[in-house]
C-alpha cells in the first residue's frame, strides 16, 4: 500500500457484501476505491467456513447476485466450494482484482472532522478515504464460550469456522458443542469416521428435510441458452418466500402447521421415544432459524453417537462435563457456537465524530438508519447492518437493496459537490429504529419463547428485518437528505484552516 494513499471509497471485506459493493461502485463510474481484506483471498464466510458438509440452506438460484446469474449451479442447494468458486468468478468477471488488498486487516478507522475523511490504519499501512463501506458481515468472527477448564484440555480444540484440516478425526472421540446450522451439517459428515461422537445440545433446533438434488444437464443447458428460464426459477423461489413472511412477522400461530410437519419428520427418523423427547424443542418453530437437513436425525440414531441434553459446562482434563452432569472422555472438542453478531468486533475499531467508538454508541443495542448509517459516523455505511437479517430467505436480496442505497448515497455526494459528508441525524436513526422495533413485537422471533442469536444481551432483536424483502427494497431505494446532516468544508479553506460547516437540509 502506497504511503499516504487516498481513495474515494474504502470497502472493508470481500464476501458477498464487499464484492457486491465493489461491483456497484464500478457500475456507478467510481473506480477510485479499494477492497481491504484481512485474509489472502475473497469469499468472506464462504472462505472461512470449510468444515465437512458445509453448504447453503437457501436454493442456489436465489443465493446469487441478480446481476451475475449462474446457470451452471450443480445442485439445488450449493456446497461451500461451489459458492466460493462463484465469488471468485464474480471477482474476475467484474475486474475487481486490481482493487483488492489482501492480508490487509483494518485495525482502526477514525473520522477526521476537519478533513471530512476517514483515517484508516491497517496491518499493511495507512490510507484515507472519503467514504467507508463496512462489509465485514455478522458471521465473520467466531464465538467460543468461556468454559472452565478448557485451557487445560490436552486434546484438539477448534471452532467450526476455523476448521483444522490437518487434524484427522478418524477413530477419535469427539465432542460437538452446539446444534445450530453448522453443527447439523458437521454431525452427519463426521459421524461415520469417528469412534464416538458426543453431541452437547443446549437447545434443540427444529429441523425440516433438505430437498437437495443435482441440477440436470438439460436444466443447465436451458438456463444457459434461455436466461429468462433461470430468472423465472429465481422469481418463483423468491415469491414463495415472500408469501411465507407474514406467518413469521404477523401471525406466528400459523406456523403450527409447519411445526407438525417438523415433528413428523423427526418421528420418521428417530424411533427411540427418549431420544425424540431430547430432540423436541419447547418453543415455537421459527423462533430460531429453521434448519434444513435430511441426514442429521438419522446420524443421531447411530450406535456411536450420544446426544446430551445439556450444554458444555466445564472441561476436566480430557473429560467434557455437560450441564446435566453427563461426562464423556474425548480427544477433540469442536465448537459450533456461532459468531459475534450483536457485538461485532469491527465496532470497536470505528471511531466517530465525537471520539466514541461504534461499540460505545451501540452499547445499549445496535441501530442504524435503514440498516446502513449510524449517527455520528459520517460517510460510513454498513452492509448487512442492524435489523437487515432474514429468517426465511436469501440475504443476497437484502445486500442488493443496500447496494441501491449505497449507489444513491454516492450520487447525492456528487450532486452536493465539493468536500462534503452525510451524517445520519440521531432523530432519524431513532425514528427508523422505533418503527422497526414496534413491528418486531409480534414476530415469532420475539414471541416464540426461545433465546436466539437474533437477540442482544438486553433481549432486543437487533438483527432481523420484520418484513418482506420487497418492503426493504422500497425503503432503501433512495437516500432522503432530510434524514441527514450535510457537513461541508469551505471551498477555499486550506488543509490547516478548514472549519466544518453543518448544513441541515
Automatic annotation (TrEMBL):
InterPro entries according to UniProt: FAD-bind_Monooxygenase_sf (IPR051209), FAD/NAD-bd_sf (IPR036188), Flavin_mOase-like (IPR020946)
Claim: Flavoprotein is one of the keywords in the record: yes
MF terms (GO), sorted A to Z: flavin adenine dinucleotide binding; N,N-dimethylaniline monooxygenase activity; NADP binding
Cofactor(s) annotated in UniProt: FAD
Keyword terms, alphabetized: FAD, Flavoprotein, Monooxygenase, NADP, Oxidoreductase
The keyword NADP appears for this protein: yes
Family indicated by similarity: Belongs to the FAD-binding monooxygenase family.
Function: Catalyzes a Baeyer-Villiger oxidation reaction, i.e. the insertion of an oxygen atom into a carbon-carbon bond adjacent to a carbonyl, which converts ketones to esters or lactones using NADPH and/or NADH as an electron donor. Thus, can convert bicyclo[3.2.0]hept-2-en-6-one into the oxidative lactone products 2-oxabicyclo[3.3.0]oct-6-en-3-one and 3-oxabicyclo[3.3.0]oct-6-en-2-one. Is also able to catalyze the sulfoxidation of methyl phenyl sulfide (thioanisole).
Protein name: Baeyer-Villiger monooxygenase
